[in-house]
Amino acid sequence: MPHRQPGGLHEQLLGALPFQLTAAQQRVCEEIAQDLARPQPMHRLLQGDVGSGKTIVAALAALQCVENGYQVALMAPTEILAEQHYAKFSAWLTPLGIEVLWLSGATKKSERKQLLASIAQGAAPVVVGTHALFEDDVLFRNLGLAVIDEQHRFGVRQRLALRMKGSLANDGAPEAPAQPHQLMMSATPIPRTLAMSYYADLDVSVI
User: Fold this and answer.
1) One-character DSSP codes across 8-64
2) Residue 143, Cβ neighbours under 10 Å: how many?
């Protein structure tokens, strides 16, 4: 599922930021944008210290997918970390007319039902949450990008469960899932050669 290069929303967000991207952030953004434009699913690790700007890089990647008509899911291992991502994504994307939804294990049952319907219908372009995102009843209309923060804190099956969230046919029936692009983020230093050997086909970007 190739996504064409970033467009208007991407430039709007960059213009609204109270800071300019560093050279390292610009470099990894370009690496990710090129991956998203390819037909093969991206499988990339974004590595950087806390405060290095991984979240804004992920937000810009999300915009590229949304501009191409796809949904984005961002999953974090704890509610505190997921809420931080939700707050930042909401502050950056809501002014651009992009709704950001929040889903966690603590979401009320009545609210959860509405959220799941929005996700399945494709009305929710960006969804941020915890482990609740890969539960069986969470179905995406057209998931184009799965972002997993602190990926080492999730098991292999958990990461795969989110990546394998399929698309839905026009009648609401699940189709054979088209694998979305996957961006994993970590503040834990992992030597590039070790990461590539351990994760096989993983590409690595370092801020």
Assistant:
1) HHHHHHHHH-SSPPPHHHHHHHHHHHHHHTSSSPPEEEEE--TTSSHHHHHHHHHHH
2) 28
∠ CA 145-52-28, rounded to 5°: 50
pLDDT in tens, 156-171: 555 555 556 655 444 4
Three-state SS at 161: helix
| pLDDT, tens only, 18-57 | 999 999 999 999 999 999 998 888 989 898 888 889 999 9
At 2-21, the pLDDT tens digits run 666 656 888 899 999 999 99
Q: How many CB atoms lie within 10 A of CB 11?
A: 11
